């Protein structure tokens, strides 16, 4: 497969109290955000924390995009990625993943792509991203 690949991973985190779970969520977010700009072939990285509060939701989502399938494959054994996985250890108690070919977003009528990001890479609707 050629072309960009989107890699999405969602986790549930452990913790006996809401405070412990909140700290675990933040630790996962901070650890993966630390990979930004450090992984060859990774062109985008976003980490979000669930705000829905529903009991069936995951706690953290990682959305990344890679130059191609080879870059995603290399990421699996990248030393920085492996360091983060070791650092987080068992605080992640469930993991879900989807990888798929990333299509370029079609521009909306207002000229802003459907993903909400302007051509310069900044969010068109900053309020949407404020809590992430």
Fold and architecture overview:
The structure is a single chain. This protein is α+β, with helices and mostly antiparallel strands and 132 residues long. It has one domain: Alpha-Beta Plaits (2-Layer Sandwich). The chain has 4 helices and 4 strands, in the order E-H-E-E-H-H-E-H. Strands 2-3-1-4 form a 4-stranded antiparallel β-sheet. The two termini are 31 Å apart. The model is unreliable at 118-132 (pLDDT under 50).
How would the blueprint of this fold be written?
Layout: E1 5-13, H1 18-33, E2 42-49, E3 60-66, H2 69-76, H3 79-88, E4 92-101, H4 126-129
Antiparallel strand pairs: 1-3, 1-4, 2-3
The amount of beta strand, in percent, is 25-35%
Q: Fill in the CATH topology.
A: Alpha-Beta Plaits
Main CATH class: Alpha Beta
Largest sheet composition: 4 strands, antiparallel
Tell me the CATH architecture.
2-Layer Sandwich
Q: Considering DSSP H and I runs of 4 or more, what fraction of the residues is helical? A: 25-40%
Could you give the order of the helices and strands?
EHEEHHEH
Question: Helices and strands: which structural class?
Answer: alpha+beta
Beta strand count: 4
- Helix count, per DSSP? 4
What is the terminal-to-terminal distance? 31 Å
Please state the overall shape, judged from the principal axes of the Cα atoms: globular
Mean pLDDT: 87
Core attributes:
Alpha-Beta Plaits; single chain; 132 residues; four-stranded antiparallel beta sheet; 4 helices; alpha+beta; globular
What would a concise description of this structure say?
By secondary structure, the protein is an alpha+beta fold. The chain has a single domain, classed as Alpha-Beta Plaits (2-Layer Sandwich).
């Amino acid at each position: 497969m050629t072309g960009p690949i989107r890699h999405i991973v969602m986790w549930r985190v452990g913790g006996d109290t809401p405070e412990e779970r909140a700290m675990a969520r933040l630790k996962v977010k901070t650890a993966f955000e630390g990979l930004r700009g450090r992984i060859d072939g990774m062109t985008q990285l976003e980490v979000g924390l669930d705000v829905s509060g529903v009991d069936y939701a995951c706690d953290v989502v990682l959305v990344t995009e890679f130059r191609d399938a080879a870059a995603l494959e290399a990421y699996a054994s990248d030393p920085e990625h492996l360091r983060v996985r070791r650092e987080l250890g068992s605080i992640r108690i469930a993991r879900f993943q989807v990888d798929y070919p990333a299509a370029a977003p079609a521009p909306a009528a207002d000229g802003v792509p459907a993903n909400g990001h302007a051509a310069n890479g900044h969010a068109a609707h900053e309020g949407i991203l404020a809590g992430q």
